[in-house]
Predict the structure of Flavin-dependent monooxygenase.
Amino acid sequence: MTIAIAIVGAGLGGLALARVLHVNGIDAVVYERESSRGARGQGGMLDLHSGTGQQALREAGLIRQFHAIARRAGQDLRLLEPDGTLLLQEDTPDDAPLERPEVDRGDLRDLLLDSLPEHAVRWGHALESADNGTLHFADGSSATYELLVGADGAQSRVRPLLTDARPAHTGQNVVELGIPDIDRTHPDLAAMVGRGNYWVLGNGQSLSAQRNGDGRVRIYLSFHHTAEDWFATSGIPFGDPAAARVRLIELFAGWHPRFTALIAACDDTVLPRPITTLPVGLTWPSRPDVTLLGDAAHLMPPVGQGANMALLDGALLGLALAAHPDDFPAAVKEYEREMFERTSAAGRQSARIQDILASPDASRKMLAFFQPA
């Protein structure tokens, strides 16, 4: 049987597309490599912007449900220097508008999944290749389609049908750690981090801590101006979490003890995350039967734009297809014209923030970014 619209990838963008199509009475099938919705953790918190990510949820008819799970206090921000100097503290009033509330990525994905018919997502379908209107999966099965949408992330198997572009290392490597149930286990550190985002920016290194809805604080240690093989040469023994924490504390020698105390308090989650991006402004000649969204189309640095762009991609592609239900090529062209312009601008802004974070005086430049003259 031929599927009219096949979506590869049950991330936020792919699910937003499926939801908007469903609202408009258009069937689509999402193929996902994970075996089930709970097969893998979905990461930390996202801040959904009112004009992009939240707009996508409005188009999907889910904004009320989103507001029920969003964390207004997640908009809080503290910015510090490595010596402990507090540069900026923004505490969100209880009646503040939900301009950029935080939401747990897993909760948001569940919201989208619960809004779809159960048969809309086919789990355990890892795409091996696509050619001549046919998808080939790792389990030997196949499916044919009229329109294929690659929503399959940074290492997209669909992208090569449209462009030879590949993600490139940015010179940034990140180590993710975390403190579970921080209010109970380390109330002093919980008070220090606060309710939202906590950033300490140094010379080529940074520490960010992010409060999650489940009481966990995720901590990200960033190392700029480092090579793609830096994890192999850094001396961080990832197979021995306790020794890895000791080594990470050594790498932050000279920073205020309160910051290294955060590292010392972490559990045994020590995850290396090399940061890669696609070229800013990437485009491709439109094809009538294939397009991309989200990280598959415009992988950006992790500075707050990626998930918002992916959600809006999915919503706007869904609306374009609903407006041209009998002319997929016209819908794809309309979507891509808008998406290329919008995400190029977002990519340039993300690259600018990335440059600030990697600069010698990152803390002062970021302060100026948040509080322009």
Notes: Residues 168-277 form a domain with the D-Amino Acid Oxidase; Chain A, domain 2 fold (CATH 3.30.9.30). The mean pLDDT is 93.
